[in-house]
């Protein structure tokens, strides 16, 4: 009898209409779906598949950093070392080290909010801003900015022709503008998302470019959300690693960041967000008070084990290990670059970033399918990152060297121009 009652009660909740607006699916699962569909039809190819698609790291966590994680876990098994809930904003020692080692004390430790990753923080930033803001995104861009804007209800529907959502400002980024948005000539947005070094284009913004957009955001009263998840990949001079290297940024910018892509922490989960102490809303209230509220209400602080790993990342030995991992991935990027350049394709990125962005002669999904079928290499079609990515292909350098070399040999055949 009780069962019958539950069955009657279960349906009848309307779906959140914002979720119904989301396109097909999140991009990376869609890539996986196509790869699996190909393998279902061609099971003999399973051993041949090389993934240069989703930007997931493949090299193991280096020993000193790993030891930080292990020791962090071990302390929990001792009476003296055991800790329960920690500060929701992160442990003081880690916030201090992030401020000093990664920002040369340009920011105060109290402005650092340690988290379980940059993607999660982007959603938290969105929850804080709410449904009424207008967001601007680079086109193409990392899909999370658009998808979280849609989930929050900031947008209208996606136009089936332009593939753009109503009420989002798309800032075209292509070779014509050095992959940097021309925000001055676009409608004003409340929140501007900017990623440098960029995923997917691999472009790293210069000091001059960032100075320009900070000035514009201040003039137009926009908050700049700067995604610096790839900052340590920057090896060129005069390319800022943080938006806070730019004068005036503390009046308009928030920075989201992550250990994922260079410490091998994609599965470990550790990131942080910097919210400047003086950053204010139009009514004079402090942005950081609201961000703190999100962190304390809906997050309870990053794992203490993982924060111990983060501390190990930031001491001298950890920094050295990270630098070596980045060297390895950047050398992969160079091999990929050289391959496509030799084939005669214009190649972007791959210098201060682990991604290369190849200019194709035709459609990006066609190239993706062709390369999967003929070379068994998984890439990502630029169009998956927004309409502005059509005609480009993103390749990730986060693979073992042997896979990169093998993939390049196959691509030299498959991608040969007539
Ligand atoms: C991978 C990636 C992230 C996600 O980082 P996590 O800390 O693993 O959540 C954020 N931003 C960009 C641009 C990324 O490519």
From TrEMBL:
InterPro entries: Aminotransferase_I/II_large, DapL/ALD1, PyrdxlP-dep_Trfase, PyrdxlP-dep_Trfase_major, PyrdxlP-dep_Trfase_small. The keyword Transferase applies. It holds the Pfam family Aminotran_1_2. Residues 49-411 form the Aminotransferase class I/classII large domain. Its cofactor is pyridoxal 5'-phosphate. One of its GO terms (biological process) is systemic acquired resistance, salicylic acid mediated signaling pathway. GO terms for molecular function: pyridoxal phosphate binding; transaminase activity. Gene3D superfamilies: Aspartate Aminotransferase, domain 1, Type I PLP-dependent aspartate aminotransferase-like (Major domain). CDD domains: AAT_like. Keywords: Aminotransferase, Pyridoxal phosphate, Transferase. PANTHER family: AMINOTRANSFERASE (PTHR43144). Belongs to the class-I pyridoxal-phosphate-dependent aminotransferase family. LL-diaminopimelate aminotransferase subfamily. HAMAP family: DapL_aminotrans_1. This is Putative aspartate aminotransferase. It comes from Fragilariopsis cylindrus CCMP1102. The lineage of its organism: Eukaryota, Sar, Stramenopiles, Ochrophyta, Bacillariophyta.
């Amino acid at each position: 009898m009780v069962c019958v009652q539950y069955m009657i009660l279960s349906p009848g909740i309307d779906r959140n209409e914002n979720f119904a607006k989301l396109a097909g699916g999140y991009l990376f699962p869609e890539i996986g779906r196509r790869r699996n569909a190909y393998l279902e039809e061609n099971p003999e190819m399973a051993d041949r598949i090389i993934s240069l698609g989703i930007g997931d790291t493949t090299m193991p966590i280096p020993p000193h950093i790993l030891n930080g994680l292990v020791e962090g876990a071990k302390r929990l098994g001792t009476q003296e070392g055991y800790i329960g809930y920690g500060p929701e904003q992160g442990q003081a020692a880690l916030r201090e080290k992030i401020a000093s080692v990664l920002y040369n004390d340009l920011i105060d430790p109290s402005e650092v909010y340690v988290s379980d990753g940059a993607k999660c923080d982007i959603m938290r930033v969105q929850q804080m801003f709410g449904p009424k803001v207008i967001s601007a995104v680079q086109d193409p861009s990392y899909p999370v900015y658009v998808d979280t804007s849609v989930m929050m209800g900031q947008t209208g529907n996606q136009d089936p022709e332009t593939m753009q959502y109503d009420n989002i400002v798309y800032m075209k980024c292509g070779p014509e503008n050095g992959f940097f948005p021309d925000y001055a000539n676009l409608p004003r947005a409340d929140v501007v998302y900017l990623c440098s070094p960029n995923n997917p284009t691999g472009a790293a913004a210069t000091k001059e470019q960032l100075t320009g957009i900070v000035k514009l955001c201040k003039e137009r009263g926009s908050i700049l959300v700067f995604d610096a998840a790839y900052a340590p990949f920057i090896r060129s001079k005069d390319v800022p690693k943080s938006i806070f290297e730019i004068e005036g940024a503390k009046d308009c910018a928030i920075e989201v960041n992550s250990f994922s892509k260079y410490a091998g922490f994609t599965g470990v989960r550790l990131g942080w967000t910097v919210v400047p102490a003086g950053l204010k809303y139009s009514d004079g209230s402090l942005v950081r008070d609201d961000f703190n509220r999100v962190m304390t209400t809906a997050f309870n602080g990053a794992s203490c084990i993982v924060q111990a790993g983060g501390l190990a990342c930031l001491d001298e030995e950890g920094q050295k290990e990270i630098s070596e991992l980045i060297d390895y991935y950047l050398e992969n990027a160079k091999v990929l670059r050289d391959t496509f350049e030799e084939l005669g394709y214009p190649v972007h990125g791959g210098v201060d970033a682990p991604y290369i962005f190849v200019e194709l002669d035709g459609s990006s999904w066609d190239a993706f399918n062709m390369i999967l079928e003929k070379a068994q290499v998984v890439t990502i079609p630029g169009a998956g990152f927004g309409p502005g990515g059509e005609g480009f292909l993103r390749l990730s350098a986060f693979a073992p060297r042997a896979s990169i070399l093998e993939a390049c040999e196959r691509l030299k055949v498959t991608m040969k121009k007539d």
